[in-house]
Amino acid sequence: MSNRWLYLALPPFLLVAVAFMLVQLFMELDEDSVDRKAAERLTLYRQTILGEYQKYRYLPYMIARDPRATSALGLGQPSESANRFLQEMAENSGVDLLYVMNAEGTTLASSNWQEDLSLVGRNYGFRPYFSAAIEGEEGRFFAIGATSDEPGLFLARPTPVSGKPVGVAVVKVDMGPLEEAWAEGGETVFASDANGVIFLSSQPDWRYRTLTALPQEVRQMIEATRQYAGRELSPVSDSLDQERQQLVIDGKNYRHNSADVGLLGWTLHFLVPVEETRKSVLPIWAATISLCLVYAVIVLVLRGRRLRKASALLRQESAGLKELNTRLVEEIQERRRVEKELLEAQRGLARSSRLAAVGEMSAAVVHELSQPLAALRMFVAGTRKFLEKGDTETASENLDEIDSLQMRMASLTQELKRFARPGESRIEKIDLTESVRTAEKIVRPRFEETGCLLKLDLPSDPLEAETAPLRIEQILVNLLRNGADATAGEEAGEVKLHAQRQGTELVLAISDNGPGIPEDLKERIFDPFFSTKTSSGGMGLGLAISMRLAEDLGGSLSVRANTPKGAVFELRLPALSGEKASERASNSAGDSASGTRTEREPEAAE
């Protein structure tokens, strides 16, 4: 009798054992699923933070370069014109504050100069962003405003952007809208700084609290910089287990995932209630208990009413199948819902990628148009002086140059729009020496500004090629301007352009006697947004665009070390073949004999 009961009890014990193993397995699967979702969300949130940072990163650099904003530094006292300019820039760019400080950290111009809490006259030399910028670096610092008591991200650049800084240009960006977007998303996410202080959070009560207790020296450093304006900075977590990814806040247990933001040195945290990692436990135990109960009923039915209760047993089994079918239908609906959410997330990531592509193209437009704009400013200034002296002939020549530059800029924007479709550019038979001299006119103001010497070594014979002249000029302008920037700090800075024909190729070598390019950076020098101009704030697009243009024209662009120092950029292009050159010469002779002249098309002439 005891053996019989043992055999009857064996199946429920096996079911419980199997259920226990399934619970452990599905808990691990649920945790992996939550971690994958957390990784995706953290990547998206990280991109939103970096996108907000990159959106305003250029602004302090532009302010530092603009004499309208930095005029107060030359006067040594507040300037109303500088205040009005910063106020207009802040309103147009959407930033919270724009201000300029002198070398001692005293604010001489600010966008809020007319408000009660104006920054003009206040000293912020104790802020880390000021210390970094006055040392010639880019300052980045999130803090609560010492005057306004409002939080924001402070971005700073030295002015002037090259040479010894005499002041600092600062932009304050309000991160509140980003935090509000997090809260509207319904997820638990927050960002902490390098010291573990939470400063952005979808839960407002967690803001300005810490993950763990701060050491005394860290607290003293935060108080010295007045980063969080005397906030208590008390721990928000009851316990933190990094190994098990467990975090307890206000008695609630969370699954904890984190990711580094990168450039800003912040850490993003994504929390999911532990209950979501155990959602498969209850159905498994419910199914196990149900099966045990069904088993007990079956045993009792077979024991008491073997034959007469056979139909009742079938009805119970049918009910069990119906319940299982219902659960299957619910699981299918749940999977469809999850798939829909994943599809929406993928679409969101695709939109973010498109926005990033638009940002890169905008940066390229700014980079390429800044050089002709600089030349335009020089010609306009010269024209005014010639008109004041009554030299209308020279002024007229300058106006011709200005008209040529604006036509070039119009063509240049069309070229940037067609950057991804190089086949649409106009191909002509040209003399590369003409392109060299056109590029030399554009970059000449930059060489005069830096005091560097530009030498052209051109052959007497024409360097004929069948190519796109405007793109060649773009490449040469980028390389010559980079050479001027590289030699700006040298005592006798010199850039030399040597052109010659080597077999079936035309070779243009631009060499300088600057500091050169480190060996470990030569592989990355042509990558987009990579730049060695730490002091001048180069955006790292010129060489990437030049490399692309050279390859599109069937040529190549390379770099090597110069002797005794500096770098040599070598542009190689296919030369016009002898047969084509002869054909062109005969056509020119025929045109001369018939008394006609062949004109270049407008785009090539420009």
TrEMBL record:
Give the E.C. number(s): 2.7.13.3
Is Phosphoprotein given among the entry's keywords?
yes
Q: Where is this region: Disordered?
A: 579-606
Tell me the membrane topology, using the record's own terms. Multi-pass membrane protein
Question: Gene3D superfamilies from the entry?
Answer: 1.10.287.130, Histidine kinase-like ATPase, C-terminal domain, PAS domain
Localization per Swiss-Prot or TrEMBL: Cell inner membrane
The source's superkingdom equals Bacteria
Give the record's keywords alphabetically.
ATP-binding, Cell inner membrane, Cell membrane, Coiled coil, Kinase, Membrane, Nucleotide-binding, Phosphoprotein, Transferase, Transmembrane, Transmembrane helix, Two-component regulatory system
Its catalytic activity? ATP + protein L-histidine = ADP + protein N-phospho-L-histidine
- InterPro entries attached to this UniProt entry: dCache_1, HATPase_C_sf, HATPase_dom, His_kinase_dom, HisK_dim/P_dom, HisK_dim/P_sf, Sensor-like_sf, Sig_transdc_His_kin-like_C
State the protein's name: C4-dicarboxylate transport sensor protein DctB
Q: Which organism is it from?
A: Roseibium aggregatum
Give me the gene this protein comes from. Answer: dctB_1
